[in-house]
Every structure is written in structure tokens, then in C-alpha cells.
Design a protein that fits this description.
The chain has 534 residues and is an alpha+beta fold. It contains eleven helices and 34 strands. It folds into five domains: 152 residues, MoaB/Mog-like domain (Molybdenum Cofactor Biosythetic Enzyme, Chain A, 3-Layer(aba) Sandwich), CATH 3.40.980.10; 61 residues, Molybdopterin biosynthesis moea protein, domain 2, CATH 3.90.105; 88 residues, Molybdopterin biosynthesis moeA protein, domain 3, CATH 2.170.190; 68 residues, Beta Barrel (Beta-clip), CATH 2.40.340.10; 132 residues, D-Maltodextrin-Binding Protein, domain 2, CATH 3.40.190. Strands 8-5-7-6-10-9 form a six-stranded mixed sheet, with no helix packed on it. It has a six-stranded mixed sheet with strand order 17-14-18-21-20-19, with helices on both faces. Strands 29, 30, 31, 32, 33 and 34 form a six-stranded mixed sheet that branches.
């Protein structure tokens, strides 16, 4: 029986891995989201001269210290300076220079009076407001001083950093990069756009892994699907290992009859470890093939992406000396969590400091796409009680509010997590303090009901009900069925009809209640949904 290694042992082995990172010089525009391979120092001051931040008149501030609307100060205009032009201009007491935003401040000038506080007449200006020294002036080197460290080795080159480098006149920069090849495996996997035959599924992992790595800053390429054939796997892996620094596969790593990746890897490389005592992701495989490293991820999307986040990304980031910190937030568990008593990384949503477990299983991609991050469950920990404080490792967005009930709340342009459309459950969760706002069938607010028929036909239907011979999860699913001709007609609440552009006829109305712990949130719900209160 194959021995599973502990998480700590797996991470120690991963720390010993040295990846063949490429170091190259690129045009700054091509460096965005890459990692700097050098410390960068400012070659010039920024700005390189004292410059005006307003259209107006450059003055000696002591000349206009008593200027006011009722007692303006008269100054002679000796020059006009536009942005981008260089003029050797010096002003003395009683003089000024007309100046444009971004232009060089004349010698001896120490402030700029905005044009709206001045009146110009026949070569003179009458200043109606005093200015302090350096007012409306950006001093040379005040943004960045020559010799200042502006980018550290391993720092991610964000668009803002790229703008700074170009502003300093730097055209090229050295970066670290990794070339990563990504394969999916399995005869049941097909590519998006192909015909979906019975028993086949569209690839999730390959596209999710590649885009995740590109978003992180690496040069990842999807090389297609490896079929369940050992010889084909050996050939493709050997070829990829010669061209790429890292090879990542998903699937074919467990002990199933057709999981042949391990057999293929043994023939072309050396296995570092195979199998980690953790859920999800137990069959995680790491191997060396030539000068490349192979990471064999599990096949289920949640398992594959969780292992990618927890084990693979730290290795890749370390190799480029990345200055990236894991974001960890603390929250309160909103629902009792049961575990099998083994080490587990559980996908969760974090909303308003509350932690909600996502328990659709490792085969459900939405378990991770909807997740904020994951909560680690220790070995032999079988229950985490509601109300316990726990830390979550964040890899996606967190939310400010939790809302539930009638799915109208999905229309809200708020940073909110929609928990459930089950109105009874929504009320229970609200009573427990897990939800910030609920919309339920009630008495308080009246909303029109619109009937829309297939091919634009209008019918007369009383009441409001989302159920028919076909059950729909929400308005969006019902709209999709109507648009594709799968149903003959549908009832929409007016805000949804307007949002989706559904033409129909008002046939009735429905009354709803809105309850919220936050009065401002409640007001926003009513405003956005245009409810009419009696």
C-alpha cells in the first residue's frame, strides 16, 4: 500500500526544488504583472524641475501676502511660459510670469496664483488672493528623488509601477519568468466548442490553471488534453519538459485502473513524492523530468485548484523571489462544519467577517469559483462549531454583506454574497445573525408581475409563482428557458423584466417584505429595486 506523506513533509520537499527560472530584459510594456529581476533606482528626479500644478501666474509669495478681493496686488507680467518649453526666466519683486500647468517655475519664483484669483489688464495682473510659499508648485524630486529605490527585486510590476518606470525614462527592465506547460488528462475531457457527446465533459482545469498562473505573472500555455495512453503521455511529457520549466497536469494521478500518469512519469523521470494526507488533493504528484518539474494535480476541479493554490503557487513564487504575502483574514464560522477527521482545506466564502462553508464537493467547479478562500481543518478535528473564530487564506474576493430570500437581491449593485432563495431558511439565518438583509413574500411593498410569452404572446395569469412543470432556480434560469423556447410563458417581477429586457404585460402584483439589520442597506435595496411603499 502506498504511503501518504504529511503536509509538512510535502512542503519541506517542495522547498528543496530549484526551478530553472529565466532572467531576461524586456520592454517595460511587456513586463506588466511579471516579477522584477533587479533592484531599480531612479536615474533622474521626478519631476525633473520645479513645475506649476495650476494655470495662473508664478510670483514671489511675499509680494502677494496681503492680496485680497478688496485690495488686489498689481504685478507686471514679464513672460509667458507654456508646458514643455524651456525659457531662462527670472522674476523680481513686483513681477510675475504667466504660466501653464506643468510648465517650469521661473527662477526666484516660489508660488503660483491660480488664474481664477487674478485679473489681467494691459500687461499687468491684479492678484486678489494671497498664496503661501510653494503653493501650487511641485518641487523638483518631490515625487521621486534621483537614486531612490523604486522597484525591488521580486516585486510584481503592476500597471502603476510600469507607469512610474516609463515616467523615469526607463525603456527596459530585467524580469524573472517561468515557462509553464499545462495539460488536462482523460478520455472523457473535450475542449470548449466541441460537440458535447453523452459521457463527455468540457475541460475546466486546463483553462482555470493557465489563467490563474498568467494572472499571477507567469508565462503559462495550455498544450491540450492527454488521452489515457501511457506511450502518448510519455512522449508529450518528455517533449514539454525540454521546452518548459514547469509542467502541470490535472487528473490521472490516483489509483484508478485508467490513471496512468504515474506509470508514464516513472519511465521518463523521477518521482519526488506521490500522495499527501490532505482533503481535497490526496493523489498530488511531484516529479522531475529532465531539468523540468512536473506537478500532477488531482482531476476534480476543487481538488486541482486547491492544491495549485496551497502547494504549487508558493514554489513558483519563491523561484522568482516574489514579494507577495498571503492574505489571511479572521472571521466567525456562520454554520457548523463537519469533517472526516483528516487534514482538509475547505472552500469558504467570507462576508462581513462571517465564514460560510461551500460544500458542493470536489467535482463542482462553483465550489471554488464562488469561494473567497479556504479554511484549514486539522487532522482529527471532526466538528467546528458555529461562532468559532477561524482564519481563512484568501485567494479571491470577500464580501461586505450577506443577503437572501427572493432572488431580486441578485440585482443589487452591492458587494454582497447571495446565500439562499429558500425564504424559510433565509429567515432562520437572519435570526441567527448570519444575514444582513432578506426579501420575502409579505405585505409591505408592492411589485408588479409581468407575464411574457414565447414569440411575444401575452397571456392572462393571476398570482406569482416560479414553479411549473419545470423547476427553476431563479429568474435568470427562467429567462434562459423562455429565450430558448423551452417554455411557453413565464412570470417575472418587474425589476427583473426591466433588467433582462423582457417585454410583457402586467397581470398582477405581489407583496414583499424587506428586513435588514442595516437601515442604510435596507434603503439601498428599496432604492435600487424601486419598490413602492403604501
Amino acid at each position: 500500500m502506498k504511503r501518504l506523506i504529511e503536509v509538512e513533509e510535502a512542503k519541506k520537499l517542495l522547498e528543496t526544488i530549484k526551478l530553472p527560472v529565466e532572467k531576461r530584459e524586456v520592454f517595460v510594456l511587456d513586463a506588466v504583472n511579471k516579477f522584477s529581476a533587479e533592484d531599480v533606482f531612479a536615474p533622474i528626479d521626478l519631476p525633473p524641475f520645479n513645475r506649476s500644478t495650476r494655470d495662473g501666474y508664478a510670483v514671489l509669495s511675499e509680494d502677494v501676502v496681503n492680496a485680497s478681493e478688496t485690495s488686489p496686488v498689481k504685478l507686471k507680467i514679464v513672460e509667458s511660459i507654456e508646458a514643455g518649453e524651456f525659457k531662462r526666466v527670472r522674476i523680481s519683486s513686483g513681477e510675475c510670469a504667466k504660466i501653464a500647468t506643468g510648465a517650469i517655475i521661473p527662477e526666484n519664483g516660489d508660488a503660483v496664483v491660480m488664474i481664477e484669483n487674478c485679473e489681467e489688464k494691459e500687461g499687468y495682473v491684479f492678484v486678489k488672493k494671497a498664496v503661501a510659499p510653494k503653493e501650487n508648485v511641485m518641487l523638483k524630486g518631490s515625487d521621486v528623488a534621483e537614486g531612490e529605490l523604486v522597484v525591488r527585486e521580486g516585486e510584481k510590476l503592476t500597471p502603476e509601477k510600469i507607469g512610474l518606470l516609463s515616467g523615469l525614462g526607463l525603456r527596459k527592465i530585467k524580469i524573472y519568468d517561468l515557462k509553464v506547460a499545462v495539460f488536462s488528462t482523460g478520455n472523457e475531457i473535450i475542449l470548449p466548442g466541441e460537440k458535447l457527446e453523452h459521457g463527455k465533459i468540457f475541460d475546466v482545469n486546463g483553462f482555470a490553471i493557465v489563467t490563474s498562473l498568467r494572472n499571477l505573472g507567469f508565462s503559462a500555455e495550455f498544450l491540450g488534453i492527454l488521452e489515457d495512453d501511457v506511450e502518448e503521455m510519455k512522449k508529450k511529457l518528455a517533449e514539454a519538459s525540454k521546452e518548459y520549466d514547469v509542467v502541470i497536469t490535472s487528473g490521472a494521478t490516483s489509483a484508478g485502473e485508467r490513471d496512468l500518469l504515474v506509470e508514464a512519469v516513472k519511465d521518463v523521470g523521477e518521482i519526488v513524492f506521490h500522495g499527501v494526507r490532505i482533503k481535497p488533493g490526496k493523489p498530488f504528484l511531484v516529479a522531475k523530468i529532465s531539468d523540468s518539474i512536473l506537478f500532477g494535480l488531482p482531476g476534480f476541479p476543487v481538488s486541482a485548484l486547491t492544491i495549485l493554490h496551497e502547494f504549487v503557487k508558493p514554489v513558483l513564487l519563491k523561484s522568482v523571489k516574489a514579494r507577495v504575502e498571503n492574505q489571511i483574514v479572521e472571521g466567525v464560522v456562520a454554520k457548523r462544519i463537519y469533517s472526516e477527521g483528516r487534514r482538509e482545506l475547505l472552500p469558504v466564502v467570507v462576508a462581513g467577517k462571517r465564514i460560510f462553508p461551500l460544500e458542493k464537493g470536489s467535482g463542482a467547479i462553483t465550489s471554488l469559483t464562488n469561494a473567497s478562500g479556504y479554511l484549514e481543518i486539522a487532522e482529527n478535528e471532526e466538528v467546528i462549531e458555529r461562532g468559532e473564530k477561524r482564519k481563512v487564506r484568501i485567494f479571491s474576493k470577500t464580501y461586505d454583506f450577506v443577503v437572501a430570500g427572493v432572488d431580486l437581491l441578485k440585482l443589487l449593485d452591492l458587494n454582497s454574497f447571495y446565500l439562499t432563495s429558500d425564504q424559510k431558511l433565509a429567515k432562520v439565518e437572519f435570526a441567527l445573525g448570519n444575514i444582513d438583509a432578506v426579501v420575502t413574500l409579505g405585505e409591505k411593498y408592492e411589485v408588479d408581475v409581468i407575464f411574457a410569452g414565447k414569440d411575444g404572446k401575452i397571456g392572462s395569469v393571476e398570482g406569482y409563482e416560479l414553479k411549473s412543470e419545470i423547476e427553476f432556480r431563479d429568474h435568470f434560469q427562467m429567462y434562459h428557458a423562455l429565450r430558448r423556447g423551452k417554455i411557453d410563458g413565464a412570470l417575472f417581477l418587474k425589476p427583473f423584466a426591466e433588467k433582462l429586457g423582457v417585454r410583457g404585460e402586467k397581470v398582477s402584483s405581489v407583496r414583499l417584505d424587506v428586513i435588514s439589520r442595516d437601515k442604510k442597506l435596507e434603503e439601498e435595496i428599496l432604492r435600487l429595486l424601486s419598490f413602492q411603499k403604501d
